[in-house]
Amino acid sequence: MTLAIFDLDNTLLRGDSDHSFGDFLISKGLVDAVQHKARNDYFYQQYKNGGLDMVAYTEFVVSALQGMSRAQREALHRDYMRDFIEPMMLPAAEALLETHRLRGDYCLIITATNRFITEPIAERLKVDALIATDLELADDQFTGRIVGIPSFQAGKVQRLTQWLESHNARGTPGMAPLGMEDSVFYSDSFNDLPLLERATRAVAVDPDDTLRGIAEARGWEIITLRG
After folding, report:
1. pTM for this structure?
2. What radius of gyration do the chain's Cα atoms show?
3. Catalytic residue among 9, 16, 105, 192
4. Catalytic residue list contains 7
5. What's domain 3-223's superfamily in CATH?
């Protein structure tokens, strides 16, 4: 069984779910349009430059959700899935996932985006597991703080290592332990270089310019899911 690992934003999706959630909140009139867009774009540029402040960004994302009940958050997310995520779905990405499933591979999404945003997306894509940045809850309210290590840059390697240890310790009847010795990782971003270097096979998917140059130099496969 191959461990098939997938980045989410701009890899399996035609766009960034984190950044688009800010646009969604603006469209719903839940935030100040001018100020929120400016901050959202600022953080997105930080990410593209490789220097995202995950603590500050998480506080920013969660601020609009504070005070909402779980039912209100879930209803909001259903609208977000319908209006913003479904148009980002890539038929070729879904076909790639299905190819791995038919081979009997274990499909895992690992993303820096928080679990609130990404868990319903992972369920929609029918993957076996999701590793995302986890948010702290107190009295069923997001505090704005992160639980554990953000799954960003080298944090993806740390979170995946922890997840593999936990998953293999629990064990699944009829399933061999999972490991990086037979793994493939699909990503669009140079931010994922630490995990790309750990995978048995690294695949650059519609990569940014930096990752494209690295992939070409190292002979990594480069594919598009947007054709």
Report:
1. 0.95
2. 17
3. 9
4. yes
5. HAD superfamily/HAD-like (3.40.50.1000)
